[in-house]
Amino acid sequence: MQMILDTAFAMTREKGFANVTARKVASEAGCSTQPIFRVYKNMDELWGAVYDRAAAFFQDYYELYPRMGRAPFVNLGMAYIAFAREERHLFELLFVSGGSRRKGMYEILNGASGNVVYEINMARAAGCPDPSDLFMKMWIFIHGAACMTLTGDYDLSDVQTLELLEHSYQAFMGTNR
Fold it and tell me: Residue 101, exposed/middle/buried by CB under 10 A (0-12, 13-18, 19+)?
């Protein structure tokens, strides 16, 4: 069971979720399709397991991502943009392709640790009168930047990205007062 899921997940990371078919997974795993359907009742079940693994992978990625910024939402944004750049296919699966979503974007971002709630509370403590509105503005900006990495239209360094996010936070904070 683990080998099948590991193979399907690795294929998703390398080639994209659309390439995860029973025949291709079996070929990569060096087996027939029979073991796949002994473990999973159908491909939807395997795809769901791959999706859940991708969501957990993002959580681990975020938890391990170095904290560079001091302003709320900046570290979450840095990790999200880097994830789009480094894990293109997983990013597309989790945050772009609406048809395969099992969880909402907020649920994935917030995770079991309450990542978004933490950032919202941090903004509130910094004096933001409407931190949820600030999060929405920042998130539209952050998601746009991350999606630009998929098309090759985002080529800012981490230092430039950090500066851009901190400046954006300050600008959006100014509109919330």
Answer: middle
Cβ proximity of 113 and 120 under 8 Å: no
pLDDT tens-digit readout, 15-32: 999 999 999 999 999 999
Per DSSP, helices labelled H in the chain are 2-15, 22-29, 34-39, 43-64, 74-86, 88-91, 105-110, 115-125, 131-151, 158-175
At 65, phi and psi to the nearest 5? -70, 135
How would residue 57 be classed by pLDDT, with cut points 50, 70 and 90? very high
Q: Could you give the angle at the alpha carbon of 133 between the alpha carbons of 169 and 138, nearest 5°?
A: 35
Q: According to the model, what pLDDT value does residue 1 have?
A: 75
Query: Do residues 65 and 75 make contact, with C-beta atoms less than 8 angstroms apart?
Result: yes
Task: With H, G, I as helix, E, B as strand and everything else as coil, classify residue 142.
Answer: helix
Spacing of C-alpha 51 from chain mean position: 11
Asked whether residue 127 carries a pLDDT value surpassing 70, the answer given is yes
* CB 94 within 8 Å of CB 108: yes
Give the mean pLDDT of the chain: 93
pTM score, whole prediction: 0.92
Could you tell me the residue ranges of all domains in the chain? 51-175
